[in-house]
Amino acid sequence: MSVATASIVSADEFPSAMESVLDEAGAVEALSGFSRIIIKPNMVNSSPPPITTDARCVAALARYLTERLNAEIIIADGSGEGNTIVNMDRNGYREIGVPLVDLDAQPVRTYSDPRAVVYREVHLPDYLEGAALVSVPPAKDHTITKVTLGLKNMVGCLHAKHYGGYWSYKKSQVHNGDEDQIIADLILYLEPHLTVIDARQGATGGHLSGVVPDPPLGKLLAGTDVIEVDREACRILGHDPDSIRYLSLAGALRDSRYDRPHSGRLK
User: Could you please report the per-residue DSSP string of 171-211?
Assistant: First the structure.
């Protein structure tokens, strides 16, 4: 599947760039038929963009979907640090005008998949059940996994009740083991229906303290295949996508599936 890409310099260009990439990516077709669409930004903490997803990017996405689909549009995440809703408020998400949901405040449901290597069982917010998932992270380097993009953004959906405790980070158990394989396993449960990556600025050198490159990356990407979108974002960040181990592992897991029982389409 192709990855739609648009050039973007100013945040004022988000609405036009978003329309361009989502039209090309077939977003309406991918999300049609769902009564609830969950926009999942990267709200790891209260930091401003590009450490977290720019609210102006999310606003452009929410408006596009609201104008074209008869569905409830929700913005939801489970922050790694601090209170999710407070973090969203500090970054201007309240002004978007759609409901904000803290996934860690929702009841938990357990899912299993024998094809997973590490996470043969996962504990996820019941709120995700039956919804379409749209992953909307910023494009960032990561100090452990090299990059954090559309697939790794799904770590925020893991319920803090079950995935904290390794250190203060509320999803810290993902670091307690083979993190690349853990992220890859998530494609069996949480594969997004649509991935949009805000690479208008980009963050290089780290996921919490990275800096905007000079010049900024200047791109917005979208597609229905999270691995392909992430691979293209790797190139834009200056990485060989074949060097990102969790993407290779996720691709192998997805290719081995005999059906799609989860894949972000939780039963």
Answer: TGGGGSS-HHHHHHHTHHHH--SEEEEEEEEEEBS-TTT-B
Across the range 160-173, mean pLDDT stands at: 92
Maximum Cα interatomic distance, the chain, rounded to a whole number of Å:
46
For residues 11 and 242, what is the distance between their CA atoms, to the nearest angstrom?
Answer: 31
Task: Provide the b/e sequence for 176-197 (b: ≥16 CB within 10 Å).
Answer: eeebbbbbbbbbbbbbbbbbbb
- pLDDT grade for 263, boundaries at 50, 70 and 90: very low
Residue owning tokens 């394989």: 181
CATH code at 89? 3.40.50.11440
- Does residue 260 fall inside a structural domain? no
CA distance to 106, 171, 180, per residue, from 83 (Å): 14, 13, 26
Please count the residues of the chain: 267
Task: Look at the chain and report how many structural domains it folds into.
Answer: 1
Q: 21 is written with which tokens? A: 């990439």
Quick check: is 267 in a domain?
Answer: no
Q: For residue 261, how far is the Cα from the chain centroid?
A: 20
pTM, to two decimals = 0.95
Q: Is residue 225 part of a domain?
A: yes
How many C-beta neighbours within 10 Å does residue 6 have? Answer: 20
Tell me the residue range of the domain where 36 lies. Answer: 4-255
